[in-house]
Amino acid sequence: MYQQMIFVNLPVNDVATTRKFFTELGYTINPQFSTDDCACVVISDTIIAMMLSKQHYANFTKKRIADAATTSEVLLCLSAESREKVDELVDRAISAGGSATGETQDQGFMYGRAFDDPNGHTWEVMWMDPAAIQS
């Protein structure tokens, strides 16, 4: 059965720093699609983040590239299997050089926190009680 994938392409200030950051979060880098100008971060079997140097990213758009440190161009949200896994990933992100952003969201059936990566991209991490999804 075909599984649709998502390839998120993000401009970054420093590919090496970005590669180190996401490796410290426990993700792998696919060397087949990585260069000095791009880190192919494998988040899951169906989610790939292509972290492109701003110079390389500019080859794919004629638009001005947003500065993620001062402009919100996208909010990325990753699911987590538990509240504890939300905290674990966000705490690892902060320890690896990211920064906490926003307030913790705790609605009982849903729990989330967020961090900004070293390039300013905001990543939300969210857990939702599976019973609430089926309701």
Shape: globular
Low-confidence stretches: none
* Helix-strand string: EHEEEHEHEEEH
Strand content: 35-45%
Strand order in space, largest sheet: 1-4-3-2
Decide which structural class fits the backbone.
Answer: alpha/beta
Helicity range of the residues?
10-25%
Distance between the termini: 27 Å
Q: How many strand units?
A: 8
Helix count, DSSP H or I runs of 4 or more residues: 4
Task: Name the assembly state.
Answer: single chain
Structure keywords:
single chain, 135 residues, alpha/beta, 4-stranded mixed beta sheet, 4 helices, 24% helix
Word description of this protein:
The protein is α/β, with parallel strands linked by helices and 135 residues long. The strands form 2 sheets. A 4-stranded mixed β-sheet has the order 1-4-3-2. It has a 4-stranded mixed β-sheet with strand order 5-8-7-6. Strand 6 and strand 7 form a beta hairpin. The longest helix has 13 residues. It is globular, with a radius of gyration of 15 Å. The relative contact order is 0.19.
Please sum up the structure shown:
The chain is of the alpha/beta class.
Can you lay out the helices and strands and say which pair or pack?
Blueprint: E1 6-12, H1 15-24, E2 28-29, E3 38-42, E4 47-53, H2 54-57, E5 75-79, H3 83-95, E6 99-106, E7 110-116, E8 122-128, H4 130-134
Parallel strand pairs: 1-4, 5-8
Antiparallel strand pairs: 2-3, 3-4, 6-7, 7-8
